[in-house]
Amino acid sequence: MTSLVAGLAVFLGVHSLRIFADDWRTQRIARIGVVAWKGVYAAASLLGIVLVAYGFELSRQAPVDLWFPPSWTRPLATLLTLPIFVLLAAAYVPGTRIKAAVKHPMVVGVAIWAVAHLLSNGRLGEIVLFTAFLSWAILDFRSSRQRDRKEGTIYSAAGLSRDFAAIAAGFGAWVAFAFYLHGALIRVPLVG
Predict the structure, then answer these.
(1) Exposed/middle/buried for 84, CB within 10 Å: 0-12, 13-18, 19+?
(2) Bridge-partner residues for 65, per DSSP?
(3) Burial of residue 171, with CB atoms counted within 10 A of its CB: 0-12 exposed, 13-18 middle, 19 or more buried
(4) What distances in angstroms separate CA 110 from CA 26, 61, 87, 118, 131, one per listed residue?
(5) What per-residue confidence (pLDDT) applies to 187?
(6) Within a 13 Å sphere around the CA of 175, how many CA atoms are in the beta-carbon half?
(7) What is the pLDDT of residues 2-36, one digit of tens each?
(8) Which of 128, 131, 6 is nearest to 59 (CA)?
(9) pTM greater than 0.85 (yes/no)
């Protein structure tokens, strides 16, 4: 559990700098430059995610059951992942109505992902992992919206074709993940 918690602290800590230390972050970027900052940020993120993966795998080898989710929560969690992939795609397709409405679709997608997994998993390692990401997503969304209001950021929509592109990309990624990649990477098949 130590590796999992340490990894979450590093990964989410780096991703929380704009929430808790935006001025410090801005000063570091000015001091060392954008390229160096991105390198440090990427290295710390990679270290964090490796520790999370290692710690999560250790927690799966010695599971501590806290509760036993009903069987219907697994298919529900699988269905909840579909809008997550659409939201992730909408974060990168410029000018979607989805992004104009949601403002920060990736962060909302992370929150839904965490809730879906908290509904369908009852082991300590899973609860620690997904509660940490849910807490981060809530704080990040709040902070991002405050920053948007302060800076007068407006998310405009360019047309329905952008939304169709995000929906198609999200659906395609969901099919690949639900039917193949989740089972291959996480060793928990979602469908089939």
Answers:
(1) buried
(2) 123
(3) middle
(4) 25, 25, 9, 12, 11
(5) 84
(6) 5
(7) 999 999 999 999 999 999 999 999 999 999 999 99
(8) 128
(9) yes
